[in-house]
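Subject: for your reference before the review

Hello V.,

The reviewers asked for a structural picture of the protein, and I figured it would be easier to keep everything in one thread rather than splitting it across files. Below is the amino acid sequence we used in the manuscript, unchanged from the supplementary table.
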Amino acid sequence: MGIRIYNTLTKKKEDFIPIEPGKVKFYLCGPTVYDYFHIGNARPFIVFDVFRRYLEYRGFDVTFVVNITDVDDKIINRAHRENRSPADVAEEFTRAYFEDLEKLRIRRATVHPKATEHIAEMIALIRKLEERGIAYRLNGDVYYNVEKFPDYGRLSGKKLEELQAGARVEVDERKRNPLDFALWKAAKPGEPAWDSPWGKGRPGWHIECSAMSMKYLGPDFDIHAGGEDLIFPHHENEIAQSCGAGSAQFARYWMHNGFLNIRGEKMSKSLGNVLTVREILKQISPEVIRLFFLQKHYRSPINYSEDILEETERAWRRLQNTYGELLQVENIPEDEFLAGKLPDRARAALQELAHHRSAFEEAMDDDFNSARAIGHLFEIVKLANRILAEGKPEGERAYVLSRIRKTLEGYDSFLSLLRKEESPATSGDFEKVMELLLEVRNSLRKKKLFDLADEIRSKLHEMGYQIEDRPDGSVWKKMS
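And here is what came back from the structure prediction:
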């Protein structure tokens, strides 16, 4: 079975068939750089980063484009409040955006086009719409005439009359239709402006994504993604602009992630519950944030709360602790053990691993169901822990564990949940001190001084370290 994607345009799952075999052209709506991005913004950045990398894992050559809106009303308003230039505001928060992407272990896109660097392409696209009679001028502004595009509303699934009655649009009585949207805005005092056939001004938000996506991916490409809130009007208007200018289909598959709530409420400035990623990262590790989003299907709504984050962190520590133990297991070459020569228990363990590998990838192929896939990831962790609990890994047990480790590392090429490097709490002098404590405790147990041995265990437990007594000796690990 190949990859299937839920297409917002058709309202159903479809087989993923890229326009060019083996290659995927993928566009994600990026940030408007007027502030640090919040936890709601982080969801599409993380989940579509994983989807892009999973496509690469499956052998596709992916061109991934994520734009940067660096001219917008919000940027201009902040600049005026702070007595700065809009360019200065955009530069500061573009830099912060990339810093926070790196902290979240999100890979850079193939290209991050900036709106201000593609004004010429936007002007050319608007002129084409004007030549086709779809755009009209109005005192230095240029508007898109939605009634000239018969398919308007096909993404949101609403008819033009319904949208006219219920859509939130800018109120401008000069427009021919309330839903007509600005392609070009005439210059206002104190705002950035560029020369154009219609006089000085700046582009509308919607035309930016159409121009930049088509420049780097062509007039028709495979996947366009973003948050559910962008379906209307932003993505609806992109389709109207791009197809109105001559694109046959524009994007073939439209993918949208669900909303994020904060403690059961919609995130909003009025409620005072807007949480920036930069602040959250001071308390929560990036791997935990990634797991938080991946353990839920990307199209489902998700609730953010401290309790859920704590539960997610405990789950991540189970994963990381097991991986840390697997790193200590000798790497057994694949050809050293042949399946026919393995004991029945080892063969059974490998069969269990194969089952969960297959189920994991089936889940990811099924509309990128990371929630179901993560469940199988933790089943693999349980398998590893059962084998680790049997004693020092040697022979066929070490071989099975090395296969498990390679599986986890393979999946981590797109999940980015594991820390490969040793942490300070598991290296150097600290580790030697812990091993010495275990030796002292084992000596006390041999002398039947169980009260003292239990006291050491209890004190370490209070400090966040768990002692496990195994057949071949005691081991310690950082508790989740």
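For the response letter, the relevant points are probably these. Residues 422-428 have pLDDT under 50 and may be disordered. The radius of gyration is 27 Å.

Happy to draft the paragraph if you're swamped.

O.
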